[in-house]
Amino acid sequence: MNRSLSGRPEVTRRDPAGDCLAVDRPILQAPIGSLASVDLVVAVSRAGGIGSLALTWTDAASAARQVGAVKALTNAPFVANFVLAFEPIALSAALDAGVPIVTFSWGLPGPLVKSVHSAGAAVGVQVGTVDGAHRALDEGCDFIICQGVEAGGHVQSSTPLRILLPAVVAKAGAVPIVAAGGLADGADIAEVIRLGASAAMLGTRFVASMESHAHPAYKAALVAADSDATVLTACFDGGWPYAAHRVLRNSTLQNWESAGCPPSGRRPGEADVVARGQRGDVVRRYDDMPPHSRLDGDVLDCCLYAGTGVGRITAVRAADSLVKELWHDASVCLGRPGNG
Ligand SMILES: Cc1cc2nc3c(=O)[nH]c(=O)nc-3n(C[C@H](O)[C@H](O)[C@H](O)COP(=O)(O)O)c2cc1C
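A: This is the predicted complex of the input protein with flavin mononucleotide.
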């Protein structure tokens, strides 16, 4: 595609971004780290949305297997995501295996944009500021993910989505914008589309899906949580220091806050192993690892990522019917009920 936005390099590639986001139901399942299963990605993409594999902490062989597994089950578009706070060690393997869309977060991709385009895939970059959006556009990305401070998981932004999104939309010209952060139902999706987004990306809502790898107790905690249950914190920094994240309040967080939020090395229960996996893997109290379904122990003491939309999650749902219902409800809110 050749774009002619003023001052920006023109980019030539095989798979125009406009096409890659032009799905029946413009809802992206966010990359939700280790909780993003192949089954989840396939279910979302088959339902007319766009699923995302989270391949940052995956080796090349496993990344190729996951991309191949999704492609074997659907021809629909899906994403491989890489958090650029870490080396994207599996990017080449994911591209070689034929992933159609790559997204980056926590950094600008620079020369990686060319590598992805050369492989025929489209590039999205998650940003948390207008200036970040400007830089991502200058680098030739095909779409922007605009993350507001309401987001669950690691949070790049310090600005509410309803303020940031219109400013990023105004900056982006014809480049599509995906809105993310605190979105949980059809009315939320309709609102961001009214504000100029081409699609919505939901993370926490899909953690509480049947197909996610999240521990059942974590899913139940999301369903039970009120809208004021989340906090933006630096508490769970094991594995990824100096990166703000939004979580449900739990006993680990409350005890740390009650102790005066002491730094690493002086935190209450710092050496505790709170949960164990069947392969001998352990989760320590302040690790950044959310609880997956094969862990035993005090899983609710682990890091429970959640966005501010959590109060509107009322049940653990199958991803297929969830995507369809979300878009149906959004279409009704937008006054286009036939679209859902
Ligand atoms: C459990 C969990 C894990 C996440 N892991 C990633 C990740 O691996 N890469 C990434 O770019 N974003 C990750 N995110 C953030 C999402 O990309 C997205 O910005 C966020 O989920 C949107 O907010 P919401 O959760 O309120 O819908 C994660 C979010 C959650 C809840």
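The mean pLDDT is 94. Residues 186 and 330 are 4 Å apart (CA to CA).
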